[in-house]
Protein: Cupin type-2 domain-containing protein
Organism: Candidatus Scalindua rubra
Amino acid sequence: MNLIKLREKIQFNEQFRPQILCASPDTKVPLICLEPGQEIPAHPSGTGIFYVLEGKGIMYLDDEEISLSKGKVVIAPEGAKRGIKGEERLVAVAVHIS
């Protein structure tokens, strides 16, 4: 079992870099830390589950815009194009399943 203290892992950078907390051949768990205005460009991927720990932002899911804030969970179906933009410092954990 791996215990990860997320608060200790939070790190903001001038250029967005996800911090991979765990990975296997079919699963990846990144910690996402976005400054206001930083974004992850829309891209298709496997199923994704996103849990917002703090902050606010927007998730672009296909043609939809979803407001993100603390405590929200978004499930992106396999193949859906998704991207995220920080409106204020945004911290989220994602689980990507391919």
In short: The radius of gyration is 13 Å. The mean pLDDT is 95.
